[in-house]
Amino acid sequence: MISTAEFGKMKKGIVIVNTARGAVMDEAALVAALDDGTVSSVGLDVFENEPAIEQGLIDNPRVILLPHMGTWTVETIKKMEECVIGNVRRALTEGKLVTIVPEQKAMGWE
One of 27, 62, 68, 75 is an active-site residue; which one? Predict the structure, then answer.
């Protein structure tokens, strides 16, 4: 997580863009870094405690906030649907998954 200690190591005037995961950024520390000039501007489409957003980010004119919509295209939605169907099909026919997340390993999925 990027928080107060990490901002303290950065030079003044940096730009932050986070499109990965909201938990990567401590929003209260980010507001403080904006206020003290460490961060000059911010672009976020993910938030630490979504759907709640730190009010200091909402009120700051040097912050651009967007909904997380990187997968909102017809092509991407189709590919995600195909992936899910492929996972279900393989789970039913072979007892395995095409894609696996760590939480599923304990369930015997290989």
Answer: 68
50 is catalytic: yes
pLDDT band at 109 (very low <50, low <70, confident <90, very high): low
21, 62, 81, 82: the active-site residue: 21
Total structural domains within the chain: 2
CA distance 52 to 76: 26
Question: pLDDT per residue over 21-67, tens digit each?
Answer: 899 999 999 999 999 999 999 999 999 998 899 999 999 999 999 98
Active site residue 94: no
Q: Quick check: is 110 in a domain?
A: no
Q: Which residues have a Cβ under 8 Å from the Cβ of 49 and sit 6 or more positions away?
A: 22, 27
80 lies in which domain range? Answer: 74-105
Active site residue 21: yes
